[in-house]
Fold these 4 entries.
Entry 1:
Amino acid sequence: MAVNATDSQSYCMDISTIIICKNGSAHLKETLASVQGIGNEIILYDSGSTDDSVKIASSYGANVIYSKWEGYGRNRYKAAMIAKNDWILMIDTDEVINETLKNAILNIDLRNDDIVYKMRYRNFYGKTQIRFGEWGNDSHIRMANRKNVNTDQEIVHEKLFLNPGLKIVTLNGYINHYTVNNCIDYAHKMMEYAWLSADKYHQQDKQASIVKIYFSPLFAFLQNYFFKLGFLDGRKGFICATMTAWYTFLKYTKLKELNKNASPIYKIMDKKCGCF
C-alpha cells in the first residue's frame, strides 16, 4: 500500500540493511551507494576480509561487525538479530539496487508487517546481462519483518519459511547482480558452492546415486541451454549452462565421497529461528 510522501519518509527509516561479506570490495561501493537513504542502519557482517571491504563500508557509514564464517544462512541470521530494526533488507556485496527499486522500497508502508517483498534480479556475466537460462527471470524475497520469517540457517542456499497469512509482493525495479567477471571467477564460485552444497546434503543424509552423478548434470545443461533458452545468450549462455552442469556433477561426486569417507564440515544448526 502506497503512502503519502510525509508518511513514507517517516516509516522508511525503520529499515536495517544487512550485508554479509568476505573480500567483497569489487562492487561494494556501488552496493552501498545504492542503499544510501534506505533506512537508518547498514550492517556489514564481515568474516575476515583482507581487501578494502571494511574500509569501504566504514566510509559509507556502515556498522562493521566482525565474525567467523558459519555459512550463508547462519551469518545472515546473526546479522539480522543484531539489527536495531525489525524490517530487514538483505543484499550481497555484488548486488546493486536500481533507482526504480529504491523508490519502491521508500514508498512501502512499514506499518503493515503482513507483507514480504520479493525483488527481481538482472544477473550479469562481466558486463553482459544474462537474460535466459538459469539466470533469467530470477527473483528472491529480500525484505521482510524479521518477526514473521523463519530461516533454516543452512550453509548455502538457505530457505525462508513464511508465517501463515503473509502476502508476497514483487516490487518494481531490479537488483543488478554482478555474479561473475570471467570463466576463472565463475569456476571458483561453482566449486565453492558445490562443496558447500555437498556438505549440506551430507548433513541431511542425502545420497548420491549414479543417476544423480551422471544424469542430473546432463539434465541441468539441457534444461538451461535449451528449455530455458540459454542459447539465446550466445557464448556466455553456453558457458552458464555448462558451468551449472559441472557444478551439479561436482556436488554429487563430492557428496558421494563425504558419505563414504568424511564427516560434515559444519555442525547442524537449529533449523528454524525468528528472522532471516
Note: Residues 234-261 form the longest helix (28 residues).
Entry 2:
Amino acid sequence: MTDLVQPDRLAKAQAMRAAGVDPFPARGVEATPIASITARAGDSANPGEMVGQRVTIAGRLAMPRDFGKLIFAPLSDRTGRIQVGLKRDALSEWWPQRKWLDAGDLVGVSGEVGFTQKGELTVWASEVKLLAKALASPPEKWHGLVDVEARYRRRYVDLWATEGVLETFVKRSKIVSAVRRFLEAQGYLEVETPTLHPIFGGATARPFVTHHNALDADFYLRIAPELYLKRLIVGGMERVFEIARNFRNEGISTRHNPEFSMLELYEAQADYRRMMEISEQMLESIAREVNGTTKVVFRGVEYDLKAPFARMSYTQLFREQNGCEFDDEPAVRKRAKELGLDESAGYWKLMNDVFEATCEKLLTGPVFCVDYPVPICPLAKRKPEDPRLAERFELFLGGMELGNAFTELNDPQDQEQRFVEQVATKDPEAPGEVDVDYVQALEYGMPPTGGLGIGIDRLVMVLTGQDSIRDVLLFPALRPQRSAAEGEATEPA
C-alpha cells in the first residue's frame, strides 16, 4: 500500500470484510446518467417528468452531511451531479453501514426523484450499494488538486476533483468525432499507417529510436504519417486521412509534448488552395457543432473561426519585419545576430528562426501564412510563377501554428534531389538517408495532390479555451519522479 492510504479508511474496509460485505464488489449497477435526470426534472415549482420516478444512479460521493436521521451528499458521474438523500426510516437495514461511507467512495443509489423542502433536486435513496471503497482521501474540501504537477500526475483524481477538467476531455472526444464526420462526408477514407518507420520523414524533427530484435534493425517512432499516406494516393485511394499519434524527441512547453495527435489528410486533384478551403470549412463546422458558435476565446482574446480566413505572405512579412529579403544571406545573418539567435545552424533554418522570432507573433488570425521558401519545404511543390517559393501554408491562431499544408511534390527527380540535400545537411532533425522506396512510389506517378496536417491537441486548446497543451492531454509527458529514498520526495498529496 502507498502512503496515500488513510488508516481509518483501511480499517473501514477491513470491518466490511469482517461483516461479510465486499468493499470492492465484482458487480456494478445499471445506472441512469445523472444529466438525463436533471434535464427532465424541472424544479420544485414546476416538476418535470422525472419527479416521482424511481431511478438508479452511480458515481462518486462528495462530503456527506450527517444530521443524525438524515444524510445528504452530492453524487457525480461523468454527465453531471445530483444530491442524494439518505433517510434512516427508509434504509433501516442498511443504516448501520453508513459509518463505512467516506467522501470519494463510489456508490450506487436507487430511489425516487424529488425535492427537499428548500427545493433542491434529490434522489431519495431506498437502496445503497458501495461499489468501491476509496482508501485515499480526495483533495481537501473538493476544491481540486492545487499543485499543477500533481494534477497532471494524478489525472485520475483531477478529472473528478477539479471543476471543468472532465468537461474539457468530453469536448475533446466530441471534437475528434466531429473531424471524422466532416471528412467522411467529404468522401475521405480513414486509414492506419505504420508507427514504426525504418526511415523517419514527413517532417523536420528529432525522432525517438527503438530496436526490433527479430529483424535486428533500428526503427523510428513516426514523426509524421505523411509519406505513407501519399503512397496511398499513388495507390489510387484518392482521399485519405489519419488521426495519428506522432512522436518527436523535442522539448516540452505549453505548445509541445513529445507524443501528440495529428490529423493528416491527402486529396488527389487538389492543391494548397483547396487545402485552405477544407481547413476553413472544417474548423467552422467543428466549432459550430461542439460549441454552438464560431467564436472562441483563446488566451484571453476572442477569435472568429467563420470562413474565409485571412491570407498573409511569408516573404512579405519577413521583409516588413526585418528590413531585408529572405534570401539575402548577409543581411539575414546580421539580423539573426541582432536577435541573439544561434547562428551555428544552416542558413535556411536560421532564416526561418528569424521569421519565427519576428513574424509569428503577428499571425493572430485565424490566418494562412502562404508561400514559404523552397529550402524549408522539402516535400512541397514549387510555385510555377516563382520557383524560389513553395506552395505551402501554415494556419495560425493567436500566434500559434494549428496546421501545415502543401501542394505536394510529385516529381520523383526533384524529390530525390531534395532528399539528398536534406541528408547532406547532417541535421539531426533531417533524415539520415534518402527514402528510396518513397521516391520509387513517385516514379509510378502521383497525381496533383493537396495535403494538410492539423494538430489535434492545439485545435482542442483553441476550442476549449485552454492555455497549455498539458490541459488537453489526459497524461502529458512529465519528468520521472524520484522516490524519497533517492533523496527527493514526490509531490505532496
Note: Residues 5 and 136 are 5 Å apart (CA to CA).
Entry 3:
Amino acid sequence: MRSELKKLYYLTSRNIKLYFKDKMTFFVSLITPLILLILFITFLNSTYQSTILEIIGDFSIDDRLIDGFTGGWLFSSVLSVSCITVAFCSGIMIIDKINKANVDFVVTPIKKSTLQFSYVLSNLFSTMIVCFVLLIIGLIYLSFVGFYLSFVDILLILVNIFITSLFGTILANIIWSFTNSQGVMSGICTLVSALYGFICGAYMPINTMGSAMQAVTAFLPGTYSTILFRQGFLRGTLDEMSNTLPPEMIDGIATGFDYNFSFFGADVSTLTMFLVVLGATLILLGVLKLISNIRLKKKVTKVKTIQ
C-alpha cells in the first residue's frame, strides 16, 4: 500500500510538471478565459451595465455596485467555463498515448489503477491551480472596481471550484480513454471551449435563451455549477443593492442574471445545486471505474488467449 502511494505521488508530480513545462498546452488551456476577458472588456461590460440601469429606472445606486456586479458576473463566467475547459486541455493521459509513454508504463510494476488515478489527480491539480490563479485575479480586479464578497462567499466559490474541476477532470479522462490522436484531442478541446460556455449559461444569461434551450440546460450539471459561481460572486452586491432598491427590482436583477434558478417553475436551493453537481461527479467516477475494469478484463482475456 505504501509502495503504491509512493508511485502515485511520483506519477502525479511527473504529470503536473509535464503540463506546466509544455507552454503550448498551458496556453491552449487559457484561451477560453482570455477570450472571455476580451469579450467582456470590449462588449459585455457596457451591455450589462445598461441592462441594470434599465431595470432600476429612476433609482440611483453607487457606480461601484454596478461595476462590482458586472465584474462578479464576469469572473463567475470565467471560472465556470475554465473548470471544464482547462480540465480537457491539461490531460497528460492523451499525450502519453500519443508519445507511446503508456507502453513503457505497461512493462513497469505499476498497477493500472494507480496509473489511471495519477492521471485524474494531476489533471485535477493542474486545473485547480489555473482556476485559483484566475480567482486571485478576479478578487484583485473586484477590489478595485467594487468588492462585496464575504468569507462565506469565497468559501462557496472555492468548494465549487473543487467539485466542478473534479467533474470536468473525470469527464475528460473518460473521453481520453477512447482517444489516441492529437487531432481528435485538439478537436474536442476546441469544441468544448466553444460550446460549453453557451450551454451552461456562462456566455449569456439562461433567461435570454429560447424555451427549448432553457429546458435542456435545466438537465445539465454545468448549469448548476455556473449558478453556484454566480451566487458566490453576486450575493454581497445584491445584498448591498437591497439597501437602496425595492425587493422587486433586486429579484428582477437576480433572475435576469441567473443568480436565481428554477427547475420548470420550482426554485432550486444552493444545497440542491451542490448535490446535483456532486451526484453527477460520482456517477462519472463510477463510469470511469467501470471502463477501467472492462479494459483490464479484456487485456487479461487477451493474454490468456495468446498463452
Note: The chain has a mean pLDDT of 84.
Entry 4:
Amino acid sequence: MINQILDVYLHEQFVGKLRQGNAGFLQFQYDEAYLNASSPLAVSLSLPLQLTLHEGQNVRAFFSGLLPDDIARHKLARYLGISEKNPFALLEAIGGECAGALALYPAGQTPPVPKEDDIEKLDDKALCEILDLLKQRPLMAGNDNVRLSLAGAQDKLAVSVVDGAIALVKGATPTTHILKPMIGDIKDSVQNELFCLRLANLLKIATPHADIRWIGETPYYLIERYDRQLTSKDDLIRLHQEDFCQALGILPEFKYEREGGPTIDQSLILLQNYSGRPAADRLAFLQRVIFNYLIGNSDAHGKNFSFLYTSKDPILAPAYDLLCTTVYPQLSRKMAMKIGGQYDPMSVILRYWHCLVPDTAAAKKALDKELIKMAKECLGQAEVLKKEFQQQGIISSIFEEIITVIKSRAGMILDT
C-alpha cells in the first residue's frame, strides 16, 4: 500500500512522483504530461523516460544520492528525529534545494516563488553562530524555510554571495556557493582543499572558482556552484547534475569500488555511452585519475565525479572535492578506485596504468606522454602555487606536506 508521496520538480517543472510504501520501498513515476512535453529530460540515466513505474535499487540509489553521506547524514537524521535509513523522510524535510536542478515537495505543494526576503545577509557574528550550529545541525536543517540537501560526508552549507557578503537563502531562491568549514580532526583541511583545487586548475583541469575566507582567525572554504549559471539577463538558473553512483544505480553507501562502487572502467564506459563529448570527457576523466594519484587523494570515489546537463546530452562536470588525504595518517591510503587492479598507490607501476587504456601501442604511448607531462607539471606548479599563496598571506605547513606527496608519486611515474 502506497502511503506517502513527494512531487518531483526539475527546473521548476513537475516531472513525476516519488512514492514510499509502508515497508519503506521507493517508487518513482514520470508524469504523463511531462513525458509528452517538448524535449523532456530524464532525472537520471538510471531512470530513463518511460510511463512505466520505476522501482527497486535505481530509485533508491538516485534519490538517496541527493542526501549527505556518512556522519553528516547521521547527524542530520538525529537532529530531525528521522531514521538515517529513511531517504524519503529526509528529502521531505530538506529536498527543496538539491544539488543540480531538482526539488522535492510534499504532494500538491508547488515550489514557492523566489522573493527578495529569501536572502539574509550575515555579518561575521551571525556567520560564526551558523558555523557553530552546523556541527549539530547539518545544512541548517530545521531553520525556518531552509530546505537544502547537499551530498557528501563533510559539513557544508549552500549559501549565496551578495555584494561580497555571505547570505543565508530561504524559499526557492537558488544558492550560488557552497561553504565548507574546517574539518575538526583534519589539519588545515580548508588550505589543503584550496591548494589542490588551484593546482588542478593550473594543470588545465576544469574547476569552479574557490577562495579562503576568514572569521577572525578561523578560515572557511567558499566555492562557486558549478550547477548554477547566470543568463544573459542576469537571472540565476539551476543546472541539472548527477554523480556517477546515481547514473549507475549504485547506492551511495557503496560508493567505493571495494564495496561495489564505480570502477575506472565503468566510469569510462559511462562517459563513452552518454557524454555529449565522449572523447574529450574520457581524456579529462583520465587526467583527473592521474591528478588524484599525484596529489594523494585516496577519496576520489564514484560520488566525486558527476555529469552536468548544460543541454540534453550531459558532459563531465568540473572537478570537485580535491583533497590530499595521504598527509593524514588517520585516513586510509587505499585508493577509492583501483588502477590496474591495485588499491595501493605505491604499487602502481607503468604496466598497471596501461590497463586503463586500450591494449594498443598508440594508446599506451599517448598515456605515457600524459603521465610524464602531468607529473612534471604537477611538481613545478605546486612549488609556484606555494609561493603565490605565501605572497597572498595564505600560509600552512600542509602545503609542503602535499608537495612531498607529489614528489613521491611523480617519482613513481618518472622513474619507470
Note: DSSP finds twelve helices and 16 strands in the chain.
